[in-house]
């Protein structure tokens, strides 16, 4: 048999098929291969195909403090510096008081400049868009939410203040859903929502109810744009609750002398709140922690109020701790995000003129 | 086609003859069409040519013969597990010499399973490569001007063109 090993040139569609199976980290590196690879990898179409495609999406923790940004591979040991990536904010000036108020499909929702500037930023590919703030800049926002409406391929931002309002990225406009909203926050700072199964959740206070009836978990359904309440666990006592969505479940942390955690096993069913136990993380300054995610090994990753990440085992014992950035100005300095190459949908033509004013 | 035929003969692009069982050939749509169209009985002179070189065709046929029983009759979980392990061993090959040829052959022969497997294997091998290694295996020239490289470095700190 004759065996001639001729060099082989793969057609474009086969190369694309291979690239769709690569992780974001490799694809970002391979943008420098050639102009055609750069334009393919940067194209919104490729970003969408890659997100829908067969490659597994990796999740990283994002920490922001004092104009510095780091993303951390939380499966790696915290002392492993190679697991940390530094980012620059893609705007000429980085606001000093950026807070992370949501994370969805690779985008972070950032609020800055005394809550007057809103941004959506995908740190992986650098896509960033400034969002027009609500027209009345003096409104006080208690809760923020950021999510994606699959039915309309649109991103939405929800604010709960004295009114309930949402912003549609495609329409590039705000809409008031309810003139009167009876929920407020629990701290002196706005609370970001957590996404689960097409809804955004917050731990909130019902302003017209006495304690303890005032504690509520509220859910904003992204598709129907409606707000509803779900019950808190029966044995929830103290008011300081931190709600997160971890590994497909809602988790609630009660921050007092000890940390009690619950996880809602069956969505919306009060009886399905299961107490995960009590953590006593006295070894570090953990008086207020927020759970972020689970590692591959099943350890809980949590952040405290001084941008320190901790790994805890199922007994609540501290396995690792590292402070990643200087002291942030806000508790909301960290989030978990998915590495994607997604772009934002364009603003529909009717609204383009308005949109340009904000670019 | 006579039902008594169990294997067919095909020619590689190098002109070598290969035997492939009918059930294995069914994994490929074009081969399946050939089965229906062409007379494969012993007294038939016509031997179809597959536009795949001999070295690659050996591997493609090996894959087909291994996967045919499962594709034709379904398989238990333990079989599927065994087949997965076999696939991993089967795919241990050099990217440029043979893997890319298998990719092209699987694409040409419409073999979805092998195509997916080869794409994934290529991606896994490429994952940790440098930009220059990628250019080498794909025969790509760095067509960025030094100004463009500088601009990209500014946009994406830490990016490397080597």
UniProtKB/TrEMBL annotation, chain A:
Q: Which PANTHER family match?
A: BNACNNG10540D PROTEIN (PTHR31672), F-BOX PROTEIN CPR30-LIKE (PTHR31672:SF13)
Q: Name one Pfam family in it.
A: F-box
User: Which first-to-last residue range defines the signal peptide?
Assistant: none
Source taxon at top rank = Eukaryota
Residue stretches making up the F-box domain: 4-49
User: Where exactly are the transmembrane stretches of this chain?
Assistant: none
User: Which protein are we looking at?
Assistant: F-box domain-containing protein
UniProtKB/TrEMBL annotation, chain B:
Any single Pfam family the record assigns to this protein: Skp1
Give the multimer and partner information. Answer: Part of a SCF (SKP1-cullin-F-box) protein ligase complex.
Report keywords, A-Z: Ubl conjugation pathway
Any one biological process term the GO annotation gives = jasmonic acid mediated signaling pathway
This chain's function reads:
Involved in ubiquitination and subsequent proteasomal degradation of target proteins. Together with CUL1, RBX1 and a F-box protein, it forms a SCF E3 ubiquitin ligase complex. The functional specificity of this complex depends on the type of F-box protein. In the SCF complex, it serves as an adapter that links the F-box protein to CUL1.
Lineage at the top is: Eukaryota, Viridiplantae, Streptophyta, Embryophyta, Tracheophyta
What's the protein called, per UniProt? SKP1-like protein
Q: Where is the SKP1 component POZ domain?
A: 8-67
Superkingdom per UniProt: Eukaryota
Q: Does the keyword Metal-binding apply?
A: no
Q: In which pathway does it act?
A: Protein modification; protein ubiquitination
């Amino acid at each position: 048999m004759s065996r001639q090993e001729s060099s082989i040139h793969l057609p474009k569609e086969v190369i694309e098929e291979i690239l769709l199976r690569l992780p974001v980290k490799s694809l970002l590196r391979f943008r420098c291969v050639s102009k055609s690879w750069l334009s393919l990898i940067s194209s919104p179409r490729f970003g969408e195909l890659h997100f829908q495609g067969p490659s597994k999406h990796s999740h990283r923790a994002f920490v922001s403090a004092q104009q510095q940004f780091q993303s951390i591979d939380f499966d790696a040991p915290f002392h492993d510096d190679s697991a940390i990536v530094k980012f620059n904010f893609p705007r000429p000036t980085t606001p000093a008081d950026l807070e992370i108020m949501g994370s969805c499909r690779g985008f972070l929702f950032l609020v800055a400049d005394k809550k007057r500037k809103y941004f959506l930023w995908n740190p992986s590919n650098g896509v960033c868009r400034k969002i027009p703030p609500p027209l009345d800049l003096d409104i006080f926002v208690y809760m923020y939410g950021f999510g994606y409406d699959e039915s309309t391929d649109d991103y939405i931002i929800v604010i709960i203040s004295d009114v309930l309002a949402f912003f549609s990225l495609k329409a590039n406009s705000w809409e008031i859903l309810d003139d009167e909203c009876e929920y407020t926050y629990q701290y002196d700072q706005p609370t970001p929502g957590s996404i689960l199964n097409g809804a955004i959740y917050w731990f909130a206070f019902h302003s017209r109810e006495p304690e303890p009836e005032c504690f509520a978990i509220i859910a904003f359904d992204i598709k129907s744009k409606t707000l509803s309440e779900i019950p808190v666990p029966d044995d929830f006592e103290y008011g300081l609750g931190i709600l997160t969505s971890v590994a497909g479940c809602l988790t609630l942390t009660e921050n007092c002398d000890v940390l009690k955690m619950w996880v809602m096993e069956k969505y919306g069913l009060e009886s399905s709140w299961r107490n995960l136990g009590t953590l006593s993380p006295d070894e570090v300054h953990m008086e207020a922690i927020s759970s972020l995610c689970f590692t591959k090994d099943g350890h809980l990753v949590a952040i405290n109020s001084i941008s320190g990440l901790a790994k805890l085992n199922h007994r609540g014992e501290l396995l690792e701790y590292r402070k990643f950035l200087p002291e942030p100005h806000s508790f909301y300095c960290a989030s978990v995000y998915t590495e994607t190459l997604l772009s934002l949908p364009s603003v529909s033509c009717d609204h383009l003129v308005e949109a340009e004013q904000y670019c | 086609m006579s039902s008594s035929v169990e294997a067919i003969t095909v020619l590689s692009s190098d002109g070598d003859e290969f035997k492939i069982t009918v059930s294995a050939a069914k994994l490929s749509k074009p081969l399946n069409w050939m089965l229906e169209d062409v007379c494969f009985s012993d007294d038939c002179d016509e031997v179809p040519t597959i536009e795949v070189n001999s070295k690659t065709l050996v591997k493609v046929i090996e894959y087909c013969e291994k996967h045919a029983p499962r594709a034709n009759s379904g398989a238990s979980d333990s079989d599927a597990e065994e087949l997965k392990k076999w696939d991993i061993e089967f795919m241990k090959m050099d990217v440029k010499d043979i893997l890319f040829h298998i990719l092209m052959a699987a694409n040409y022969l419409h073999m979805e399973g092998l195509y997916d497997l080869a794409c994934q294997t290529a991606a896994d091998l490429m994952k940790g490569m440098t930009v220059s290694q990628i250019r080498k295996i794909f025969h790509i020239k760095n067509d960025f001007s030094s100004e463009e490289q500088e601009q990209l470095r500014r946009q994406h700190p830490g990016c490397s063109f080597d």
